[in-house]
Amino acid sequence: MHIERHEIGPRFSEMTVVDVGTGKLVFIAGQVAEDTSLDIGGQTREVLGFIDRLLQHIGAGRQHIVSAHVYLASVGDYAQMNAVWDDWVVPGHTPARVTVGAKLINSAYKVEIEATAAFTPHAGHEHAHDDNCEKPHASGDLR
Question: At residue 68, what are phi and psi to the nearest 5 degrees?
Fold first, then answer.
């Protein structure tokens, strides 16, 4: 079994990819907004953009997401978060999803999303090594 870790930090990797036969399982750590001044729609867009970037790094896309967990600091933000999610998710490829209200680690975070994807890479898109692809985190990131 081969395991790739991307954007490795002292506590966790932003993404871990596991070879499963000819396919790959992709585990994306909970993503939060770097610009915490944004409203729930803006933070959700930023977080989904981070997920897109991580998936693209290994040749995958949002259509490969099979499961997502959404954590909202305020359940009152559910409709606004869903409006952004609905524009982002690929029709016909909606993942299994859970959404819960949760006290997030930083009170400025309005949403955190983690995702799991599964895909078979095309030739030339295999990223077969551990890397430390740097993603700058906002100062004060407690994760």
Answer: -140, 145
Tokens linked to 116: 């799991």
Please report, for the chain, the start and end positions of each structural domain, with discontinuous segments joined by +.
3-119
pTM, entire model: 0.86
User: pLDDT per position in the chain (143 positions), as tens?
Assistant: 899 999 999 999 999 999 999 999 999 999 999 999 999 999 999 999 999 999 999 999 999 999 999 999 999 999 999 999 999 999 999 999 999 999 999 999 999 999 999 999 876 555 544 444 544 444 344 44
**Right CATH number for 3-119 from 3.40.50.300, 1.10.645.10, 3.90.1150.10, 3.30.1330.40?**
3.30.1330.40
The answer to whether 49 and 77 are in contact (CB under 8 A) is no
Q: What is the DSSP string of the chain?
A: --EEEEEE-SS-EEEEEEEETTEEEEEEEEEE-S-TTS-HHHHHHHHHHHHHHHHHHTT--GGGEEEEEEEES-GGGHHHHHHHHHHHSPTT-PPEEEEEE---SSTT--EEEEEEEEE-PPTT----S------PPPTT---
